[in-house]
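Hi C.,

You asked whether I'd gotten around to modeling the 272-residue construct. I have! Everything is below, sequence then structure, no commentary in between.
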Amino acid sequence: MYKRILIATDGTQYSTSAIIEATEMARKGGGQVFLLHVLKDILNSDPFGAPSPEVADILYDSAKHFVNTFKGMALEDGVKNFETIVKQGVFVNDIIETAREKEADLIMLGRRSSNIIKRLIRGSSTSRILKLAPCDVLVVPWASLIQWNTVILALDERHFSEKTVGKALAIAKSEGSKLIAMAISSSEEGLKRAEKNIAIVAKQSEAAGVTSGCISAMGNPVVEIAGAVASKKADTIITSGPHSWGLRETFIGGFAERLIDSTYCSVLIVRG
């Protein structure tokens, strides 16, 4: 599925599930894992503005111990390639830089909450990573378990992505997943596009031999998809994005980010 997985952590509990799930994916698929721990810039500790080397050493040693603990667990679990990286700097910038350096094909993140005020001031880390990432991004909530049993393909009727559909079908076929494709629109005009997109997915699912259900309807896309996640007991949403970023996305987040904020399952965002 993915062969070069970058997991980004700042050492908080939110990233634990992402680390565990990435390890499992690498174990099953023979992939390579890069565990990146980003330390925030250390605050100055003297009147002249010089950072304390003692504090820097303590934080660095603590971070190395943190990532090496997970490395040891991964190696015991059968993962053959697991590299740990500790950097000090800006969380989002270091993630994007490392993803490019390591030629990652997937970035995995733990999920934490966001809000309108935070987006207005500096944007959420997740939204900035989604905009800048050179590869797919998988956001994993704390205590989440990815089994790929039931996967929801959430189609944005304004931006239909063949690549996202292809990725969803490939995952469903390799994992034996039941795929539920959903295209929900809040307008009559949008519903026509949604129905057309759903018909394409249904045809491609049949050709690929993937068990699928296809739903197109009027309503609030995020609310309807979140309801389906709960009722169908889906553990993962696959969607695309982001395609654009304007005032609306600044206030309420893009389609993918709203799905992340509104559901308790993992969300895979396919790039391009």
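If it helps when you're writing up: The beta strands are 4-9, 32-40, 81-89, 106-110, 136-140, 150-155, 178-185, 212-218, 236-240, 266-270.

Thanks,
B.
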